[in-house]
Amino acid sequence: MKKVFLITLFLSLGFLAVVKMEAQTTAKLVEMCTKSAGDDATYLKDFVVELEAAGSNEKPPVAKFSMVLSKNNVYRFTVCNAGDSEGKAVIQLFDMNRLLGSSYNAATGQEYQSFNFQCQKTGVYHVFINFVDGKKGSAVGILSFIKTL
What we know:
The chain is of the alpha+beta class. It contains one helix and ten strands. The protein has one domain (2-148): Jelly Rolls (Sandwich), CATH 2.60.120. Helices cover 23% and strands 46% of the residues.
């Protein structure tokens, strides 16, 4: 009985150590990405993403988030990859089915770490985060407030 208790105790402690290390890693990535958004940006929200690779003949997986943005405000959307991420993260902003901004230009292959969005109407907007070519990856997206017009 004592052996079972000790084994359970060690496994539990090991599990808690792994969970705590993962939380610290995510927190550091969020902090680093918040800083890279710029000195003029005020952190509002983060979107932590971990996606598996797309299988052959499958659509790449996408993480979707919704939020309300206010008219006459300028927001900045920033994306940062985790160090061990295989894919390059892309953050996109949609209003219903219309693409309003993206950190990736598919026509040129140009990647950007962030983009600004000047909100024209208060409403629900959708953030999509995926990885270029459907690769596996971990990333964080940051929503920041820049200014009121």
